[in-house]
C-alpha cells in the first residue's frame, strides 16, 4: 500500500534527501539541478520528517497554482509559526488557512492596505528614501567600496516602516533592529515577542494620536491608521482585533521587506557580474530620461507579473498570489533605476561572490 510518489533523488535514513540540497550554496540552484538531473518536473523530496514536492516546469506549475489551486491554498504551519501566532493572538494573512477568515483579511489587505491608490500615496516616501540613498552614495569618494546589500536593506526597511507606521514612531530604531533579527532568526521566540511588543506600542501610539485634536486626512494615513479607522467604523464585515492587526503588520513587514531587498540586491549583483547588460540598461535609461537630472516614478514603463505566465511567477499565482506586488515593484523599479542612472558600478577586485544575499 505504498503511495505512488513522484521521482526524486535517493534517500538516507532519517534525513531523507536533505544532503542533496547542500551541493550548491544556493538552494534554488541545487533544486533546479536535481530536477533536471532526474528529469522530474514534479519531484519528491523527503526533508527529515517532512514530505515535499518540488515543481519545476511551467505546465506542472499551472496544475498546482491554477487547476488544483484550492488543494494547495493552505500553507503548512510549522512549530515556529504556531509559536509566533500565539504571541500575536492571530495568524495574519500568509498563514491563515484557506477559508472565510483568510478571504476577509486578504480582501482587507488588497483593497485597503496595498491597493494601487494606497501604494501611490506612499510615493513621496519612496522618492525621499531613494534620493537620500543617492545623496549618501554620491558623498563617497570615487572608487570607494559601497555595501549595496546593507544600504538597500536599510532603504527598504525604512520605506516599509514609514508606510506602515508613519514618521512619528518613537521606538523606530529598536523596531528596525528587531525586524532584522526576526528575518535572520525567525525561530527565536524572544525576538518574536519583542517584535509584537513593539507593534503593540505603535498601535497604542497611533490610538493616542487619533484621539487627539488634529484629524488625520485619509490621504495622509499610514497603514496602522487605516487599520484603526476600519476597526472603529466596523466596515470590514468581520471582527478585527489587536491580535489580527499585530499579526498582519508583522506579516507585511517581515514577509515584504526581505524579498523586496533581496530582489534589488540580486539584480545589482547580476548586473555587476555582467557589465555589458548593465551598460545596455544604463543606455536605455539615459535615452528614456534624456535631459532629466533625476528619475521619478512617471519615467518607469511596467511589466505584468500577474501570475498568468507560468514560466515566470516571482510573486506566485492563483488565490495566494502576493498581495504586495504593486507595493514592492514600486520600490524595486525606482531604486534600481536611480542606482543605474546616477552611478557606474563594478565589483571590487578579488573573490567577492560569496555575499550573503
Ligand atoms: C519583490 C518582492 C516580493 C516578492 C518576490 C514576493 C513574493 C511572494 C510569493 C512568491 C508569495 C507566495 C505566493 C503564492 O503562494 O502563490 C508571496 C505571498 C505574500 N506576500 Fe509577497 N513578495 C514580495 C513583496 C511583498 C510585499 C512588499 C508585501 C507586503 C507589503 C508582501 C506580502 C505578502 C503576503 C501577505 C503574502 C501571503 C498572501 C496569502 O497567503 O494570501 N510581499 N509573496
Automatic annotation (TrEMBL):
One of its GO terms (molecular function) is metal ion binding. Heme binds at residue 322. InterPro entries: Cyt_P450, Cyt_P450_CS, Cyt_P450_E_grp-I, Cyt_P450_sf. Pfam families: p450. Keywords: Heme, Iron, Metal-binding, Monooxygenase, Oxidoreductase, Signal. Its cofactor is heme. The keyword Heme applies. It comes from the Eukaryota. PROSITE patterns: CYTOCHROME_P450. PANTHER family: CYTOCHROME P450 FAMILY 71 PROTEIN, OS06G0642300 PROTEIN. Belongs to the cytochrome P450 family. This is Cytochrome P450. It comes from Urochloa decumbens.
Amino acid at each position: 500500500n505504498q503511495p505512488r510518489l513522484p521521482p526524486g533523488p535517493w534517500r538516507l535514513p532519517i534525513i531523507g534527501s536533505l544532503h542533496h540540497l547542500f551541493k550548491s550554496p544556493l538552494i534554488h540552484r541545487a533544486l533546479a539541478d536535481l530536477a533536471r538531473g532526474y528529469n522530474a518536473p514534479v519531484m519528491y523530496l523527503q526533508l527529515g520528517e517532512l514530505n515535499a514536492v518540488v515543481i519545476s516546469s511551467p505546465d506542472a506549475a499551472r496544475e498546482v497554482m491554477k487547476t488544483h489551486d484550492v488543494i494547495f491554498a493552505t500553507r503548512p504551519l510549522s512549530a515556529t509559526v504556531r509559536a509566533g501566532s500565539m504571541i500575536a493572538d492571530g495568524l495574519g494573512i500568509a498563514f491563515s488557512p484557506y477559508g472565510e477568515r483568510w478571504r476577509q483579511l486578504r480582501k482587507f489587505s488588497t483593497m485597503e492596505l496595498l491597493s494601487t491608490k494606497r501604494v501611490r500615496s506612499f510615493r513621496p516616501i519612496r522618492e525621499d528614501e531613494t534620493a537620500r540613498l543617492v545623496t549618501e552614495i554620491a558623498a563617497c569618494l570615487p572608487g570607494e567600496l559601497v555595501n549595496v546589500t546593507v544600504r538597500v536593506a536599510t532603504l527598504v526597511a525604512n520605506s516599509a516602516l514609514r508606510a506602515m507606521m508613519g514618521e512619528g514612531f518613537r521606538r523606530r530604531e529598536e523596531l528596525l533592529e528587531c525586524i532584522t533579527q526576526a528575518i535572520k532568526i525567525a525561530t527565536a521566540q524572544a525576538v518574536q515577542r519583542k517584535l509584537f511588543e513593539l507593534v503593540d506600542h505603535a498601535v497604542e501610539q497611533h490610538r493616542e494620536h487619533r484621539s487627539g485634536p488634529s484629524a488625520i486626512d485619509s490621504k495622509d494615513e499610514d497603514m496602522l491608521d487605516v487599520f484603526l479607522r476600519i476597526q472603529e467604523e466596523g466596515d470590514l464585515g468581520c471582527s478585527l482585533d489587536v491580535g489580527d492587526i499585530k499579526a498582519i503588520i508583522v506579516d507585511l513587514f517581515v514577509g515584504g521587506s526581505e524579498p523586496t531587498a533581496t530582489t534589488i540586491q540580486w539584480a545589482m549583483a547580476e548586473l555587476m557580474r555582467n557589465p555589458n547588460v548593465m551598460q545596455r540598461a544604463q543606455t536605455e535609461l539615459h535615452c528614456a530620461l534624456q535631459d532629466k537630472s533625476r528619475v521619478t516614478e512617471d519615467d518607469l514603463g511596467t511589466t505584468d507579473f500577474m501570475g498568468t505566465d507560468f514560466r515566470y511567477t516571482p510573486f506566485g499565482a492563483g488565490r495566494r498570489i502576493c498581495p504586495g506586488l504593486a507595493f514592492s515593484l514600486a520600490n524595486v523599479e525606482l531604486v534600481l533605476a536611480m542606482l543605474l542612472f546616477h552611478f557606474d558600478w563594478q565589483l571590487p577586485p578579488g573573490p567577492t561572490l560569496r555575499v550573503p544575499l
